[in-house]
Amino acid sequence: MASAEAETERRKRSHIETTMQQDVQFRTKKTGFDDVELVHNALPAINRDDVDLSVRLFDHELSAPLVIESMTGGTAAAARLNEILGQAAQELKIAIGVGSQRAGIEKPELAYTYRVVRDKAPDALVFANIGAPQLVKGYGLKEMRKAVEMVDADALYVHLNGVQECVQVEGEPLFRGAMDKIREGAEQLGVPIVLKETGAGFSHETAEFAEKAGVKAIDVAGAGGTSWAAVEYYRAREQSSQIHEKVGEVFWDWGIPTVASVVEVSHSTHLTVIASGGVRNGLHGAKALALGADAFGLALPFLKSTPGGVEEVTERLQTILLELRTAMFLTGSRNVAELQTSPAVIRGLTREWLDARGFNPDEYAKRKR
Ligand SMILES: Cc1cc2nc3c(=O)[nH]c(=O)nc-3n(C[C@H](O)[C@H](O)[C@H](O)COP(=O)(O)O)c2cc1C
Fold this sequence. Notes:
Elements: H1 2-21, E1 36-38, E2 55-57, E3 60-62, E4 66-68, H2 76-92, E5 95-97, H3 102-106, H4 112-120, E6 125-131, H5 132-136, H6 141-151, E7 155-159, H7 162-167, H8 178-188, E8 193-196, H9 204-212, E9 217-219, H10 228-238, H11 242-251, H12 258-268, E10 272-275, H13 282-290, E11 295-298, H14 300-305, H15 309-330, H16 336-340, E12 344-346, H17 348-356
The protein binds flavin mononucleotide (FMN).
């Protein structure tokens, strides 16, 4: 047991090192944000400073619909990163997720590496995090509660990482029965469960299935940003596993592009939708909101800002918020609700995808709310 736990910690460290040092983003597949145009309003009836970015998400007032996506925990170095990210989330009054809490659940002395987020961000909307394969291997309501209590979370992310588990040398591609545990959690946990991909997106079929099971929200984490096949490809290479390296190479660009996923999920369900996976600026965020998302999130760019400490992460966040504000001003959107009903034009591969998947071109640019 002790060596298995040590392995989880080693893996966490290696994920951070690999994502910091290598290019782990999708190679040819794009998020689709370049296919989306918001329609310029030459004569908005507002000043830029009039724009109100605030939203209410999971009973929480946020200064903007922005999430620092789940990344880490489980090692002393991860605790330092979480401290920086938590402090930034508190300063800007946005939402933040911790990384998979398996290490903290199995080794309580590591709980502090996650808890530090709540300590630094007492007022933030905080997401706990647990992996579906762990649910299949025996975790249940008890472990979900532990994860939530560890960070005093407002909601629980259950992450789905099928691609990663298939490429990872130590991977466990186990999903049979996961939905039963998720349903049980949705009924009894007491905080909302948010299903979250990790870079391959959700189809409308999966989203509809999740909604029926009682899930309240989906974080699409679609294709086009960080590729977990890529991360595990580099790790397989280090471990001299040519088979896993090959599988990683082949599935590097696997997944539903983020924009297509946002439209699929938000137009087929009433779930709260968080757009992530390759969101790289506030204009991407604005486009996601206009297409039906309720919030948007980024992971890798914030990790890459952590060497500059809280100052650099905060500056990155402020830039994104100014870009969002600018997009809202230029579309004449006074608030997020108005942006969500403002027109968008979808072209190119994203339009092809949505047509092929049966979404009506006259409707898919605007969510039925
Ligand atoms: C270093 C790193 C670690 C991550 N760890 C987790 C995790 O533990 N749990 C999880 O749900 N997602 C995890 N993710 C996935 C992100 O939350 C996000 O869904 C994905 O990276 C796509 O966003 P991006 O393109 O902005 O990076 C991690 C991402 C990175 C970069």
